[in-house]
Structures are given as C-alpha cells and as structure tokens.
C-alpha cells in the first residue's frame, strides 16, 4: 500500500510526539491507517508531498539517496536569485556537511493552486520574494533550505511538489489518498 499525503505546515512527519512538553500535530491527526510509515520526511516547517507505505523495500527505495529518486520542491525565497545563483544550485553547492549533487533550478511564477499557509510567511515590504522550482536527488537534513541560503536567498516557504512520478496534484493540505 502507498499513501500520498499533503503534509500541512507545523505537522511532524511521525505518528507520535515523544519528548515534547507541549502537544504538537503529528501524522496520526490526519491518517488513521494502521502499519504505514513515512518513506522519508519533511521538516515541521515544510509542506507538501509525503509518501507513506507498509512495504519496507518500497520505503527504502523512496528514502535511500542511492536510488537518486528526484524530489521537486517549490521554494519561495527572499530576494530574486540571479542567473549566477541559479547556476550555483545547478552545479551543486558546498554545505557544512560537504557538496550537494547538482540540482535542477529555475525561477517560476507563483504557483496558482497553492493554499494559504497558517501562519503566513513573514513579508518584508522592502525585499521582494521569488518562487523557484528545485529538484534534488538526495535528501539531507534541511538541504533545500541550506542550499538556497548558501546562494544568498533564504527560504521563506517550502513545498514538496513531487517524489519521482508521484505529485500533489489537487490534494488539499491534510488530505491523503492511496496511490
């Protein structure tokens, strides 16, 4: 079984929240299917496609960077990245834990099908923001955010649009469907 879930902002990519003095939203607040587990993860402050499965081999294939499954993100960044910044992302940038693999990076129009985020991103009147499409084939901790910051454009909002051939399509935040 494979489940496609549109993880909302501020939801943990796990079914329980152990060790927190306050209760935080988890997958169990949205998905009541037994014996499925996330294949990979999205940070609490990221949104978008999360795959869950009961098949351990499929879970490993999706999450393991050796298989180089492409993951596409729509990233709202501070400022307007010039061609040099995009080229650096395309070549791969060096982070504290080493160089990243080359990425596919392009400026895009603001996605029209997006839902409002609660809370909204911080808006600074004097600084423009730009949407990028960024496709990577690895999945380090907070990698996309660190990559955009490394080229001088911090991430304001991060939405994973696709993993391999699976996409969000018209899946609303907090909704899921079987693939």
UniProtKB/TrEMBL annotation:
<feature type="domain" description="Pseudouridine synthase RsuA/RluA-like">
    <location>
        <begin position="2"/>
        <end position="150"/>
    </location>
</feature>
<dbReference type="Pfam" id="PF00849">
    <property type="entry name" value="PseudoU_synth_2"/>
</dbReference>
<dbReference type="InterPro" id="IPR018496">
    <property type="entry name" value="PsdUridine_synth_RsuA/RluB_CS"/>
</dbReference>
<dbReference type="InterPro" id="IPR050343">
    <property type="entry name" value="RsuA_PseudoU_synthase"/>
</dbReference>
<dbReference type="InterPro" id="IPR020103">
    <property type="entry name" value="PsdUridine_synth_cat_dom_sf"/>
</dbReference>
<keyword id="KW-0413">Isomerase</keyword>
<dbReference type="InterPro" id="IPR020094">
    <property type="entry name" value="TruA/RsuA/RluB/E/F_N"/>
</dbReference>
<comment type="similarity">
    <text>Belongs to the pseudouridine synthase RsuA family.</text>
</comment>
<protein>
    <recommendedName>
        <fullName>Pseudouridine synthase</fullName>
        <ecNumber>5.4.99.-</ecNumber>
    </recommendedName>
</protein>
<dbReference type="InterPro" id="IPR000748">
    <property type="entry name" value="PsdUridine_synth_RsuA/RluB/E/F"/>
</dbReference>
<dbReference type="InterPro" id="IPR006145">
    <property type="entry name" value="PsdUridine_synth_RsuA/RluA"/>
</dbReference>
<dbReference type="InterPro" id="IPR042092">
    <property type="entry name" value="PsdUridine_s_RsuA/RluB/E/F_cat"/>
</dbReference>
